[in-house]
Amino acid sequence: MDIQRFEDRKKHHIQSSLDSKNQAIGLSGFDQIELVHDALPDLNFEEVSLEINSLGKTRNTPFFVAGMTAGHPDAFSMNRTLAERAAARGWWMGVGSQRRQLERNSDLVDQWKELRRSVPELVLISNLGISQLILSDLDQVKGIVDSIHANAIVIHLNALQEVIQEEGTPQFRGGWTALEKLVKKMSIPVLVKETGCGFSKRTLRRLQEMGVSAVDVSGLGGTHWGRIEGDRTTSHSLKSASETFKNWGISTYDSLLHAMEVLTGSQTEYWASGGIRTGLDAAKALVLGAKGVGFAQPALEKALLGAEELELWMERIEYELKVALFCTGCKNIVELRTQFPVKGMEEGIEWDLSPIKISKTDLSY
Ligand SMILES: Cc1cc2nc3c(=O)[nH]c(=O)nc-3n(C[C@H](O)[C@H](O)[C@H](O)COP(=O)(O)O)c2cc1C
User: Fold this and answer.
1) Exposed (0-12), middle (13-18) or buried (19+): which is 117, by Cβ within 10 Å?
2) If DSSP codes are grouped into helix, strand and coil, which group holds residue 279?
3) Which of 158, 220, 279, 321 is most buried by a 10 A CB count?
4) Looking at ligand 1, which residue's alpha carbon is closest to its atom 22?
5) Strands 52-54 and 57-59, how do they pair?
């Protein structure tokens, strides 16, 4: 791999994701769902709790920072800011693709070790792309997990990005077999995520049958990799493909509806990311059954402004979610699900709220 080119690409990704034209604004689908106001909630605001169970652990909040690039030297301070704030507020954090570590880059390993030492309590999730997973052996994958003492690993799927990226690796044949092997052999939870294009019912069904612990649907509505790669490329045909596919993907809302239908009651939980921009969006994802709610670009934007800005933004998001719970008359997320205060569906729906049984629950490393 040409390291300089790789690092330049990662830097460009950060800049480009901050440009609003590369955000699929208005396409998340959350406008289609409206929560119903309760004029007299029978509770005090201080009683509202954001507690949720996920991967066998009780958490104070459902929030997480979704995995973002770690592939260049400047990313280290950004990741440190994110990790420290996430740890302080009980958010979980996915790291960006650890692809470069597969090439035994010892600088990166040392950086991660240092970062991990400063936030031992943080739930950290390793990250690798499907095309790298296919080419790696299990020991390599275990190596990247061990380097950050990860509590879980997520494999990211990014078909659209790989085909629009000049240096892309759209070689996905063997992906299902590689995933199945990983799920069988890893002693920590294996998760699967998209990167902004969402999931169909068919793909979710197959992932559930395979026994993945969770799927982060990461649907259309936020950062759009077809647009970002089109922005970078000098190839005429890739630029036009990017234009043609600029709204490609399954919205986060539709992906959650698919997950709700396919995964409810199963051992595979689902998380929401992709265009989640407010605590109200988060409430809508949670009412649809998500067990985690993640942000990539907004967290990045604030982290680049500094720890204080990031902290204020995290506080704002948590506060907004509490407002949504209070104003729907729900004191916690379980009530939000059982009461199902969704316009047009006020009678409530049947939820299987028994704790999901995960076979590999050891998130403590
Ligand atoms: C700068 C940047 C880098 C990213 N790098 C990765 C990555 O390395 N691995 C991954 O799984 N997802 C990566 N993502 C995708 C996010 O995890 C997320 O799925 C997607 O951005 C949608 O969320 P958002 O709309 O909140 O940004 C990246 C996102 C951004 C903005």
Assistant:
1) exposed
2) helix
3) 220
4) 274
5) antiparallel
| C-alpha torsion 72→73→76→78, nearest 10 | -70
Six-digit token string for 211:
């026994």
Residue 126 CA to residue 94 CA, distance in Å, equals 6
90: left (phi over 0), alpha (psi -120 to 50) or beta: left
Q: Whose CA is nearest to atom 5 of ligand 1?
A: 68
Whether residue 145 contacts residue 100, with contact meaning beta carbons closer than 8 Å, is answered with: no
Percent of the chain with pLDDT over 90: 82
Nearest-atom number in ligand 1 for the CA of 66 is: 17
User: Please, are residues 191 and 215 in contact by the beta-carbon 8 Å criterion?
Assistant: yes
Q: Which residues contact 167 (CB under 8 A, 6 or more apart)?
A: 5, 9
User: Are the CB atoms for 52 and 278 separated by under 8 Å?
Assistant: no
- Strand 63-65 to 269-271 pairing: unpaired
pTM of the model: 0.94
Nearest atom in ligand 1 to 276's CA: 26
Q: What is the pLDDT of residues 32-87, one digit of tens each?
A: 999 999 999 999 999 999 999 999 999 999 999 999 976 566 678 889 999 999 99
Please check the confidence at residue 167 and state whether its pLDDT lies above 60: yes
| CATH architecture entry for 3-33+57-308 | Alpha-Beta Barrel (3.20)
Q: What's the N-to-C CA distance of the chain in angstroms? A: 32
Helix (H, G, I), strand (E, B) or coil at 308: helix
Q: Give the mutation target among 100, 195, 313 for probing the ligand 1 site: most ligand atoms within 8 A of CB.
A: 195
Q: CB neighbours of 297 closer than 8 A, spacing ≥ 6? A: 17, 18, 23, 222, 223
- Tokens 């693709």 map to which residue? 97
Beta strands in 247-333 (DSSP E): 269-271, 293-295
Interval 236-262: pLDDT, tens: 999 999 999 999 999 999 999 999 999
